[in-house]
Description:
By secondary structure, the protein is α/β, with parallel strands linked by helices. The chain folds into 2 domains: 4-276, Divalent-metal-dependent TIM barrel enzymes (TIM Barrel); 283-527, 2,3-Dihydroxybiphenyl 1,2-Dioxygenase, domain 1. Helix content is 35%, strand content 25%. It is built from 20 helices and 26 strands. The strands form 3 sheets. Strands 14-15-16-13-9-12-11-10-17 form a 9-stranded mixed beta sheet. Strands 18, 19, 20, 21, 22, 23, 24, 25 and 26 form a 9-stranded mixed beta sheet that branches. β21 and β22 (485-491) form a beta hairpin. The protein is elongated, with a radius of gyration of 28 Å. It starts with a strand and ends in a 9-residue tail after the last helix.
Amino acid sequence: MNKRSIATVSLSGALDEKLRAIAAAGFDEVEIFENDLLSFGAGPRDIAKLCRDLNLKICAFQPFRDFEGMPEPQRARNFARAERKFDLMQELGTDLLLICSNVSPSSLGGIDRAADDFRELGDRAAKRGLRVGYEALAWGRHVNDYRDAWEIVRRADHPAIGVILDSFHALAPGFPVRAMASIPGDKIFLVQLADAPKLELDILSWSRHFRSFPGQGDLPVGEFMAAVAATGYAGPLSLEIFNDQFRAGSAAQTAIDGLRSLILLEDQLAPDWPKLVSEPLAPKAKSHGTGFIEFAVNETKAGELARLLSQLGFRKTGEHRSKAVERWSQGKVELVINCETDGFAHSHYVTHGPGVCAIALDVDNAGLAMQRAEALKTRTFYQPVGPGELEIPAIHGVGGSLLYFLDQAGKNWDTDFEPVASEASADALLAVDHIAQSMPYDEMLSWLLFYTGILDLKRLPQMEIADPRGLVQSQAVINGDQSLRFVLNGSSANRTLPARFISEFFGSGVQHVAFACRDIFAAVAAMRARGAGFLDIPDNYYDDIEAKYDLAPDLMAQLRANHILYDREGDGEFFQVYTHIFDERFFFEIVERRNYQGFGAANAGIRLAAQSREVRPASMPRV
Ligand SMILES: O=C(O)c1ccc(O)c(O)c1
Ligand SMILES: [Mg+2]
């Protein structure tokens, strides 16, 4: 199995913090990025000792720039400079120097000239037992393609000179990975892995700001890896991610995400390259929708929430035998209101105020889901259960909430509830349509990998939504039969509604839950009759809808009168309506889909503006 490594440039913090985070996540090796060392307060010997203590091998020191193909006198200077870096590497205790292709305007082209420089450098490195790897930067002046870098290494024909392959530099420009097959595995000194979203951007800015971990972007990193595996390469797989959010985020979390992405990539390739993995992961948990959603509240809020739920047509169907916990149901939707004064829900309430503290997902096999989640380094959750109570396996999810897994055995999660007789009524709401979670923008990639790594969820294209006070990015993940949909919303502006939610809520969390219905007009009429009110939508919006779509006048009138938003995608139609915000935190949405797959992104800005009018001004202190 190839060792797992990461370059220090991928994480935030000072070098020692980075190294500790890398070791704690479980990496075997590390690439030391020169700037991290130069800016650090202790010398290479101290770093070497720290790495030894952390049981981290330094697989490379990088980068050494603008070396090959220089005219004199720079050429001689470069060899002297390299000797100094060799000294440093010996203090660090690493044997591999990464040289990236020359970007200097003074550099001269010519494959043989470069090969000669590397052969001479190879002699100098070999004297000290060191090695040099050559990497083609996609924006290199003369060499920007790994095939040219390999040709130079091949002609240098020196045991201390090899090639370094970086998935970004090969895949972003669209170079075929087939040519890798001609490189002997032992001439590849290092493999660096990075993904990136598809962007129309110059390649240098793209690489320096938008790289991401494999699985978080759009590049075919799996194909690249399969080509690497076919060479017989046995060295480390090293993540090298230049990303603005990673530089700013939590080093510990980013390191865990990195390891998670590597484990997922290895596992994805395992059927063809069993040598890449020591133990295959349990399969992705097959999901079948939401089992229940649990709200943590106090007694006062429990009453208010219960009132809102009954206006929406929910019925109280159960009372916990021994706890202050109620069950509310409608269609397939199951909600739990928890106002216990200890236990997990209570701590969630104390930290975040009223809100969703847990989501239970229906899966094929909860045990396997837990196995996979644990192997992917998620935090598992255990809470002592009372005698006869069901223990539901759970992991920590967004914002410290829980994700429960329910399978056949967990189907009777409600055994602890005493059924409550309620008037039979026609259920307007059928099921949970989607769950939207707000989070800081720089956590979005992390939760994306979390959801798509553990569950059978696929990512839809990311959307950009204009809040009156800044942009909001919206990323949906959905399962195959669309019974489970999460929408992750993040904003780096700090006065947008999601951003204010995060500060009011003291962290990320569920900002809304949408319920599906078959006839939104009937559903809304019944809810209104029970006293429900809905978010006010301005007339301007309806004038625009009227102009855009040729809707029948009475349908238009109904949309207007009921504050229902409308969207169309091909011949698909979408209707949505929002409750007022509950306690400045979360709200409910009711949707009707007619052959429509999206989430009404066209309407999201309208909704955010309407909600901004309803909540207090951002500057006003809460009393
Ligand atoms: O952006 C750079 O300069 C840079 C440096 C070293 C690398 O390995 C790389 O892929 C990019
Ligand atoms: Mg690289």
